[in-house]
Amino acid sequence: MRLSSTLHLVTHHLVGTVEIAEMLGVSxxxxxxxxxxxxxxAPVATLASGKVWETEPVKAWIRENRPEPASxxxxxxxxx
Length: 80
Prior knowledge:
Blueprint: H1 3-10, E1 14-15, H2 17-24, H3 28-35, E2 45-47, E3 50-54, H4 55-65
Antiparallel strand pairs: 1-3, 2-3
């Protein structure tokens, strides 16, 4: 194996469903459901601990598919 190939492998940043859940602010169960969507990036490998994805495609998917949380100012209670 050439050194450049080895370096390329070492520089990959991978995430599992726990990290995806943290990135999305959802439960691990919900992250599994989201990762099963056809539009979600394909995992790059399946390990004994589960599937793993490259970080950048996951971040791109989140930017394109998950709107920012609504601000609290939109949910006024009308108390007064």
